[in-house]
Amino acid sequence: MKRLERTLLYSTVLKAFPGRSEVIYHNVLQANISHEVGLYHLAAVKFAYAFFPTERYALQYTDVHNVLDQDPQSQNKLEALYKMCMKELLSAERTYNVVKRHLALAPNLFDDFRRIALDHKCPQFSEELVSMIDATCPEEQDRQILRMFLTFNASMRVTNFFKTETPGAFSSDSIQKWF
Fold first, then answer.
1. What is the pLDDT of residues 52-101, one digit of tens each?
2. Residues 110, 151: Cα–Cα separation, whole Å
């Protein structure tokens, strides 16, 4: 009965925004992943989207921007191009689609989170999962997005996610050390 009660509680938290969280929502409803794994992925996607190190993908941007210092019109064009590239590289939709394409990793990512949250493992970046991500993801950007899930896990310090009465809250350590 407690498990059913918890599942119903999780169901009310899951959202199905078209092109975004519906990817996770439908996989939960089709029993491809559990409600817990779905909720974890909703939080991890938001974390990855918010803290993705976009500056790693535009190393020359600052150099070119500085060269164009005397030409504001060209700087504006460069900034527009940069924003367009970053939008293509990292959008919420793309992040959800990465999860969908690599759904087989979902239980492993969640299990790493669970072990850290329940103090069965020290909060650290899982090299084993990095190897799994590298083996299954041909695209570098996809690998980087999924590695952000590992950063999310390793940053976790306190959560009541596994508390049976009130699941769903997270607290993470400063992530500055990861970048």
1. 877 776 667 777 777 787 888 888 887 887 777 777 677 788 888 899 99
2. 12
Structure token digits, residue 134: 């590298």
Structural domain range at position 62:
53-89
From 144, 143, 151, select the one nearest 172 (Cα to Cα): 151
Q: Are residues 113 and 123 in the same domain?
A: yes
Question: Do 97 and 113 lie in a common domain?
Answer: yes
| Cα(20)–Cα(15) distance, integer angstroms | 9
Residues 33 and 115 in one domain: yes
Domain boundary, last residue among 42, 71, 89: 89
Start-to-end C-alpha separation, the chain: 44
- Model pTM score: 0.72
Reduce the DSSP state of residue 157 to 3 states and report it.
strand
The contacts found for 77-81 with CB under 8 angstroms, 24 or more apart, are none
C-beta separation of 164 from 2 below 8 A: yes
Do residues 85 and 168 both lie within one domain? no
Residue 37, beta-bridge partner list: none
Per the CB < 8 A criterion, the answer to whether 123 and 150 are in contact is no
